[in-house]
C-alpha cells in the first residue's frame, strides 16, 4: 500500500498521471468503471438483504390478506405519499448534483448535495412523526402492540382501546365527520372490504339511520345502547371469544371438516373487550370494532405481526437513509471550498439539535438525556463553527472535477437505491386495497 | 501539473459520451422527475378504484416497477453504463424473485395445516 503511494507520488511530478489515479489502474476511465462495478455488486447485496424482508412480507401477506387490509388503515397514506415525493425530489437533486460534478460546476454541486441532504432530513422528520404517532396510539412493535395476543387473549387492552379510537378518528377525517364507519353494515359476505374506501361517502347519505354508532367518531364517552358497546366501558371477562372458520377455502377443501358445521362458537377462557358483548355481537353485530371483529381467529392472532414487518422494513430503510445522509454529508464536505468545509459540520450538528427538539415535542417530553444531547449538539456546533472559521485558511478547495467525481457518482447510486426500495415499500405498506 | 491535462481529458470525454461519463441533460432529468411524481399520484389515486385485492396489488407493483425502471435507467445512468452493471441489478432481482416464489410455494403447501393449528390454539 505504502509502495503504491510512493509510486503515485513519484509519478505525479513527471508523467501525465492524475493524482487520483490509483497505481493498479491503467486509466481514470478504467478506475471509475471498476469503482462503479464494485458499487453495483454492493447494491446487489443490499437488494438481497431487503429481499429477505420482502419475502417475509410476501409470506405473511399471502397467509393473512385480511390482516393487511385491516392493519394498513393505521398507516397514514398522506404522510407516506409526501415522503415518497420528498425522496423522489432528493433523488432528482442528487442526479442533478452528479451532473454538476461531471460538468465541474462546483457551487451547483454543493447546492444540490445540500438540498439532497435536506430531503433526507425531511424524510426522517416525517418518519419520526409517523413512528411517534404509532407509538402514542399503542401500535408499537412487539408485546406492547395493541393487537398482541398471549394465549389467545389480547395482552394490552388499554392499547387496544387507544388504537380503536385512533382508527375511528382517522376514518372520521377521511370520510367526513359523520361518515365514520363505512363498513359497519357488512362483514358477513365476501364484499366486506370493498366499501371501505370507495363507498364511505355513500354510506353517509344512504344509511344514515343504520349508523347510530358512528357518533363514536366524535363523541368518546357516549352511553352505550344495545348494539353499540361503549369504548370507555370497563373491560371485563366474558368468557367468550369468537371463533370463526379461519379460511373458508381450507374448510371447503375438507381440511377442517368439523368446523363447517360450527362456523361460529364461543369458547371458554377468552376475554371480550366490552361489557355485555355476547358471541353474536363479538362476531359482528354492531360491535364497535367491526374491521377487527371480522378477522378470522388465526388472523387476529397475528395482527401484531403486520406492525413488526412495517417497523422492520421501514426501519431498515430508515437506517439506510441515515447512512446515505452521512455519506452525502461526507461528499458535501469533500466537494466544498473552505467555507463549505468550515460550515458543514457545525450546521449538521445544530440541525441535529433541532431534530432532537422536534422529537421532544413529538413525544411530549424532554427527559434529561434528550436535554443533554440537545445542549451538547448546539455547543459542539457553535464551537466547531467558530474554530473552523478561525482556521478557514487551512481548508482546501473542492476535491472533485470532471476528471474525478467517482465518490459523488457512487454515493448517488446508493441514494437512488434507497429511493428505489421506498418506491416499492410505499405501495406495499400504505396502499392496500 | 496534472491539471494541465484537464481540458484534454474533458474533450476526450465528450468524444466518448456513451462510455459511462455520459452527462444527462437537465431537461431529461427533470422530465423523469416529473414522470416519477406523476406516477406517485397515480399509484395513490388508483387505490381508490377497486380491481379486486390481487389486481390492485398487481397494478400498484406494476407502477412501482415502471418508476424503478425510470430511476435505474436515468438517475442511476444504467442506460449509458456498462451493461454489466445493469446485468448485476437484474440478476439480484431475479434471485430475490426466486427466493420469494419458492418461499410462497412452500408456505402455500403448509397453509391448511397451519390453519388447523391456529384454530386449535383458540378452541382446544
Considering the chains and any ligands shown, give keywords for the structure.
heterodimer, A: 433 residues, mainly alpha, 17 helices, disordered N terminus, B: 124 residues, flat
Quick recap of the structure?
In chain A, 63% of the residues lie in helices and 1% in strands.
Could you characterize what this model shows?
The complex is a heterodimer of chains A (433) and B (124). By secondary structure, chain A is mainly α. In chain A, 63% of the residues lie in helices and 1% in strands. A two-stranded antiparallel sheet of chain A has the order 1-2. Chain A starts with a helix and ends with a helix. Mean pLDDT of chain A is 74; it is low at 1-14 and 177-289. Chain B has 124 residues and is mostly helical. Chain B is built from four helices and no strands. Chain B has helices at residues 6-15, 26-45, 53-75, 83-122. The longest helix of chain B has 40 residues, at 83-122. Residues 1-20 of chain B have low confidence and may be disordered. Chains A and B meet through helix 2, helix 4, helix 13 and helix 17 of A and helix 1, helix 2, helix 3 and helix 4 of B.
Largest interface: A-B, 84 and 70 residues
Structural class of chain B: mainly alpha
Please give the radius of gyration of chain A in angstroms. 28 Å
E-strand count of chain B: 0
Return residue spans of chain A where pLDDT drops below 50 for at least 5 consecutive residues.
Answer: 1-14, 177-289
The largest beta-sheet of chain A arranges its strands as 1-2
Question: Helices, strands, pairings?
Answer:
The complex is a heterodimer of chains A (433) and B (124).
Chain A: H1 2-14, H2 28-63, H3 65-71, H4 77-103, H5 106-136, E1 149-150, E2 153-154, H6 157-175, H7 195-198, H8 200-206, H9 248-252, H10 258-261, H11 279-282, H12 290-294, H13 297-301, H14 303-335, H15 338-362, H16 368-390, H17 406-430
Antiparallel strand pairs in A: 1-2
Chain B: H1 6-15, H2 26-45, H3 53-75, H4 83-122
Helix pairs in contact in B: 2-3
